[in-house]
Amino acid sequence: xxITVNGLQLFxxxxxxxxxxVLVHGNGEDHTIFDEAVEYLKDSYTCFAIDSRxxxxxxxxxxxxxxxxxxxxxxxxxxxxxxxxxxxxxxxxGIIGLYVAAKCERIKExxxxxxxxxxxxxxxxLRFLIKAMSVFSRDPKLKLMLDEPHIDVNMLxxxxxxxxxxxxxxxxxxxxxxxxxxxxxxxxxxxxxxGEGHGSYIVHKTTVAELIDxxxxxxxx
Length: 221
Fold this sequence. Notes:
alpha/beta, Rossmann fold, eight-stranded mixed β-sheet
């Protein structure tokens, strides 16, 4: 389905019944990375899997910024009048989630994975690779990762959503950045998952769905 928000068409799939759960993918991906997770979650939640602008079937814009993408999600939630929303974001989707939760009181629970506050929060070897790829491709999505985000921890202090911060032991995000996010969101729970990489438990996996469901039902504290 398509919906127009902020003058741009976003594509999303709606599946299941129950409390609304908005899922946002990472850089260069689309909503289909959550197909297996949605299949697991659909009996308990109404899943809204979104293609971010410049991704998947959604419309593109000439400029691309995380806060702009967050405004799209806030507008999406308001347009559908979703209440008591659970937000899940992976990688870029996690960055977007921090902005969304800071702006939107409708977010009651948030789970984010592999999220950084600054470009320097990505490990140097990965930043070098992204920079090299960006030079050759001129892809605005890669440029976004090199230039942003720049999230002040003071913004995190205003997040009221009950929050779970996840990262893999072998994540591309520096562990100290993950811990900093968890330490600055009031009441947040942080888990570093042994043996996991950046997306190894997320992309086309049910593992992340199990973590989401367990957290929402109070099993991760």
